[in-house]
Amino acid sequence: MRPRDPLALVLGALLVYAALVLAGARALVERAPGEAASALEERSGTAAVAVSVALGESELDVPQGAGASGIARIAAEAGVLSDEQAFLLLLDYQRAAPELQAGLYTLPRPTPPGELIRRLRSGVPRELVICVPAGLRLEELRELVLGEREAPPGCAEGPLVPASGWDAAHEGPRSHPLLAGRPEGATLQGYLAARSYALEDAESAESLVEAMLDALARVVTPELRRQASERGLELHELLTLASIVEREGAVEEEYPLIASVFLNRLESGVPLQADPTVQYAVATPQSVERHGWWKEALTLDDLAVESPYNTYRVQGLPPGPIAQPGAAAIRAVADAPETDLFYFVASPSCDGVSNIFSETLDEHVANVERYRAACE
């Protein structure tokens, strides 16, 4: 019999050991919460080295505001977390949820719950991360990567790439699979994923654009595209509506309801009447100089502007996305709930971060009056 490879024996033993530790973690959750969490806390770091040697590493992108359950889901999908229940139990026991930090992590696959919590509490060096907020126009994204726009706190400041390289990379023809169904003449508006990127992704403008396209491709999975198709939306239309939802919404929890409103309007042949599309349409150089890229106080003249992007005048979706939508907005459109909602308005709290939804025009008018009265 031929001798076994020593390296294979070592890796095999490490895999068995890691499996036993993770299985023990699952068994622990059946104990009383305090006892289980304490035991998990003691064991959670022991398998990290073994698992990373045997199974490699994965990139974990934790967005702002993901929440404990959201982080658990994202980590499980990335292969970083094999036991969501154990993670949430230990997180609750340590009362550490508020301390988890957004960022782009490289972690062993899988990572024990306690080690994952420790890493997320410590965070990553943000100056090594390119942060692309959701809701930016291509012009704003250009300003960000060229250093003409301030980066989010703690993130890498530009210029990240040369201006000529960036313009050539996102304006020139591309053969990325994600763009196969993109309408002729369409730009990359809406196709460059809003998320965090490692600074090494910006070795060149071409590599950064490619990383952004790859990141969006991981969001718009075949299953998500199937869901969108069942709503009558191809990828370009999905991204177009998601960009509107991104600009309309202030809190991600409301994205599905906002998406439901617009889907109902599309199905009924009612104009979307979305202010962000008008803001996009009126952003001439003169307007941008005075009001920025997104003019807040729209006038009646603005609402009447002749543009295929003015959804007060044009029925249906505009020709393309108006900004880069985040993953939450894209998923909200693909998986929007079935409702009878047709209207929404900023809440009377005047905080600008939440909306009141209604089914009928009379209800909507009443909500608008209530909003105005409360905020005057």
Helix-strand layout with pairing:
Layout: H1 6-28, H2 33-43, H3 48-55, E1 57-62, H4 67-77, H5 84-94, E2 103-108, H6 113-122, E3 129-131, H7 138-145, H8 163-171, E4 196-198, H9 205-219, H10 222-230, H11 235-248, H12 255-268, H13 275-281, H14 285-291, H15 300-303, H16 327-334, E5 343-346, E6 355-358, H17 361-375
Antiparallel strand pairs: 1-2, 3-4, 5-6
Helix pairs in contact: 1-3, 2-5, 4-5, 5-6, 11-12, 11-16, 12-16
Tell me the strand order in the biggest sheet: 1-2
Shape: globular
Order of helices and strands: HHHEHHEHEHHEHHHHHHHHEEH
The helix-and-strand class reads mainly alpha
Main β-sheet description:
2 strands, antiparallel
Helix count, DSSP H or I runs of 4 or more residues = 17
Number of strands: 6
Unreliable spans are 1-54
Helicity range: 40-55%
Roughly how many Å apart are the termini? 88 Å
β-strand amount: 5-15%
Q: Rg from C-alpha positions?
A: 24 Å
Mean pLDDT: 82
